Amino acid sequence: MVGPIIANRRALMATILPLEDDEILREELALFLVELGHRVLEAGTLADFTSLLPAADLAIIDLMLPDGDGFEVTARLRACRPMVGAIILTARDTLRDKVQGLTSGADYYLVKPIHLEELAAIIVALLRRVAPGWRLDLKDRRLISPEGHVIALSPMEMTLFDLLSRNPGKTVIRQALVAALGYNWLDYDVRRLEQLISRLRRRWEAETGQSLPLKTVHRFGYSFGADLHRV
Fold first, then answer.
1. How, if at all, do strands 58-61 and 64-65 pair?
2. Which residues contact 44 (CB under 8 A, 6 or more apart)?
């Protein structure tokens, strides 16, 4: 179980991608990150890492890989995804390696073994810089704010946000929302849609203490007043 200090850090959540060829170490790290509330994607090879990278907010990279060099991986990551957090976690502890790792683009260079609570604190510090915008987690059916606040979504709420995310910066008309929910507009009581939106806003505010940027365009439809990324 995580201790009380770590439990208090759950507010910042992210999708984290460890690149570690040691399966046991990778699984231990993944379990710890999941316990903190993060979503974890695991890679044991550079090929796996490359395919999973587009969904990651933060990467934890081992230097000694079966099919590549960790320094080159970090440099390529920084070039193609400059806002992704990068932590090198390795057994190589020479000053030359540390300098090369940081020069290649890592935000932190950590030497194994490391206390997991220290790693958790570093992740929190890094996420303050790379915290993504609003995210719609398609797999786990969750809405995640830039600050890491999370609520689970019902199937109807998920349908609502899915349609909003497909129409960034636009107002989605009520008829389109009702159709997406599986109803005929002519037979549908629009107050049901209004109640769905109202309950969602109240629940978000009650659980997070923040307002949900879900805007009502009077008698027309709804829009999401912020970037909403599908992950």
1. unpaired
2. 19, 20, 21, 23, 26, 66
Q: What residues are paired with 142 via a beta bridge?
A: 137, 152
Q: Do 62 and 90 form a contact (C-beta atoms < 8 A)?
A: yes
pLDDT tens, position by position, 56-94 = 889 999 998 888 889 999 998 888 877 789 999 999 999
Shared domain for 75 and 144, answered yes or no, is no
Residues 168 and 117 in one domain: no
Triad 162, 207, 191: Cα angle to 5°: 55
228-230 and 134-137 strand pairing: parallel
Instruction: Let me know whether 122 and 203 are in one domain.
Output: no
- What is the reported pTM? 0.59
Helix axes 190-208, 155-165, angle to 10 degrees: 90
